[in-house]
Amino acid sequence: MVLVIGGIASGKREYVKKYLGYTDEDMADAVLDDRPVVYNVQDIVFSGSVPDDVLLEKLLEKDVVICNEVGSGVVPAEKKERAAREAAGRLCVALAEKADKVVRLYCGIPLVIKGA
């Protein structure tokens, strides 16, 4: 599994299409279905619709997982929002640990931080 992370509009989906060969049709937006790529994973976490352990298992079955980094910037005042950001961050840590490759995007420029 390849984990692709970065800020909002940093070029994550474009990277997956251009360098990994996937199309828009291959990508599921914040849903777990049979497509090989899922993006906006943080939205699944924030919704609380899938238990964390189940979500991790399902995401590890994907070819590519794309998640916005949500730990930088202003800390939300709402306790629930802070907890959701914490959960998304911890999920990314678990995914990165098991991923074959982790790529961070900065302004459309990929930086491989794990794997080849």
Summed up, what is this model?
The chain is of the alpha/beta class and 116 residues long. It has helices at residues 12-20, 41-47, 52-60, 79-98; strands at residues 2-6, 27-29, 37-39, 64-68, 101-106, 109-114.
Write the topology of this structure.
Blueprint: E1 2-6, H1 12-20, E2 27-29, E3 37-39, H2 41-47, H3 52-60, E4 64-68, H4 79-98, E5 101-106, E6 109-114
Parallel strand pairs: 1-4, 1-5, 2-3, 3-4
Antiparallel strand pairs: 5-6
Description:
With 116 residues, the protein is α/β, with parallel strands linked by helices. It has one domain. Helices cover 39% and strands 24% of the residues. The protein contains 4 helices and 6 strands. The chain has a 6-stranded mixed sheet with strand order 2-3-4-1-5-6, sandwiched between helices. Helix 2 packs across helix 4. The chain is globular, with a radius of gyration of 13 Å. The mean pLDDT is 94.
